[in-house]
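Write out this protein's structure.
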Amino acid sequence: MRNNLGGTLIHLENSESNLDHIVVLFPNSQDAARAYDDHDFTRDTQGKYAGTWKTPAGFAYDSPIADQFRVVCVDIKNKAEIGDIGEICALEAQYEEFVSILIYRTSNPAKISADLELLSKVIDSQIGKFLGY
């Protein structure tokens, strides 16, 4: 996917959150599915600041139109030693030949599930309109 990336950084107004949203177009849905499957969250699970990616507590949305969909947030071991980096989550979905990747950061962990559910619905709505659903 690295050769196809392009996107926008968005700062949410009056919020402790910001996000990057990238939509990648592949030649066909098989290439998009392969790229989605190849992008996993297993890096640095052993080091001093190891990260474990998991679905956030309380998040229940599942895309009705995406071919593949996941939301995961990182839990960093020894976070106290590196200072407050906030919470980082990824919302990824494959829609036919498109892969949507949203990286979400917040300093307010209480808002994660609600924000990510809203963002998931908005992305589904906009991509659904584009694809004619």
